[in-house]
Write a structure and sequence with these properties.
This protein has eight helices and eleven strands. It is an alpha+beta fold and 297 residues long. It binds iron/sulfur cluster (2 copies). The site of one iron/sulfur cluster has 13 residues, from helix 2. The beta chain is an electron transfer unit containing 4 cysteine clusters involved in the formation of iron-sulfur centers.
């Protein structure tokens, strides 16, 4: 079955059911951190394919540049110097970007209809023409990914190269990676391949190696093979990411409450109309107005 589909399965701030969408395979990008050499080819390929122009940065004494994701840096190599055990230094390098959550907090939080969509293949995309620049998607994202542009006040993030995937191509970062640290395909296939990588790492002494596919957000469409899967914080990843309770409240209780309040106000107005009749101007008020008009003339 084809991976390429831009059939929309879910839209932000939309209560109407989506029309029937074609069955497609869930896609996934697998990032094997143990194979990454931090060359940043993926960071450059992302900017090149998406025609993004970064600002000239400053050297902070390490290889991470720019310091953080921004509206024109949708993927960023993060460098961590850690001591997983006393006297054992490790340099961990992680490609950061949108995780394409199955249950995306950004989409749940967004109040603009259609500004955020999830395609049937699992890719979460932002449609800037509908974005109102409120930044709620940033609050809703458990991975701190979207960034607002100062130029047009719209939110931006990695698209998982939805335009390339739609025509059967792999994302630009996957295509360019010189060590094969990033692979792309059906999610089931990627999980299977990750299993072989994890087994290899365990044989090589990384007893806690494993796959990062957090269930708190329904799983993700960007997966990591981690040498220390028991401690994702070493890589700057949240241990148990989940949609914030505030967003859940907005999505769960507050929205129906607001709708119920509006319905009650409507009912009360109808009741008033039925019992009291339409608003009418009394004869005395009419006379008063006529009198004032005569005086002014
Ligand atoms: S990582 Fe953040 S921006 Fe990406 S889909 Fe998940 S919630 Fe949305
Ligand atoms: S800033 Fe984010 S939450 Fe707000 S409308 Fe744009 S995409 Fe939606």
């Amino acid at each position: 079955m084809a991976l390429q589909s831009l059939d929309i399965q879910a839209r932000s701030a939309t209560t109407t059911a989506v029309p029937g969408v074609r069955e497609t395979l869930d896609v996934a990008k697998l990032i094997d951190i143990s194979k990454c050499i931090g060359c940043k080819a993926c960071q450059v390929a992302c900017m090149q394919w998406n025609d993004l122009q970064g600002e000239i940065g400053h050297n902070h004494g390490d290889y991470q540049n720019p310091r953080d994701l921004n509206d024109t840096t949708w993927t960023l190599m993060r460098f961590y110097e850690v001591e997983p055990e006393p006297d054992r230094l490790e340099w961990l390098i992680r490609k950061d970007g949108c995780m394409h959550c199955a249950d995306p907090g950004c989409l749940a939080a967004c109040p603009a209809p259609g500004a955020i969509v999830r395609y049937s293949n699992g890719i979460v995309d932002f449609h800037q023409e509908h974005c109102i620049g409120c930044g709620y998607c940033i609050t809703g994202c458990p991975f701190d990914i979207p960034r607002l542009s100062k130029k047009d006040e719209k939110a931006y993030k990695c698209t998982l190269c939805s335009d390339r995937v739609a025509v059967g191509l792999a994302p630009a970062c996957v295509k360019t990676c010189p060590t094969g640290a990033i692979t792309f395909g059906g999610k089931a296939e990627m999980i299977h391949y990750a299993g072989t990588r994890v087994a290899d790492l365990r044989e090589r002494g990384f007893t806690e190696a494993g796959l990062y596919d957090p269930p708190g957000v329904g799983g993700t469409h960007v997966l990591y093979v981690l040498q220390h899967a028991d401690r994702p914080e070493l890589y700057g990843l949240p241990k148990d990411p989940a949609i914030s309770p505030l967003v859940e409240l907005w999505k769960g209780a507050a929205k129906p409450l607001a709708i119920a309040t509006m319905a009650l106000v409507g009912l009360a107005s109808l009741f008033h109309y039925v019992t009291k009749g339409p608003n009418a101007v009394s004869r005395e008020i009419e006379k008063e107005i006529e009198h004032e008009e005569e005086e002014q003339a």
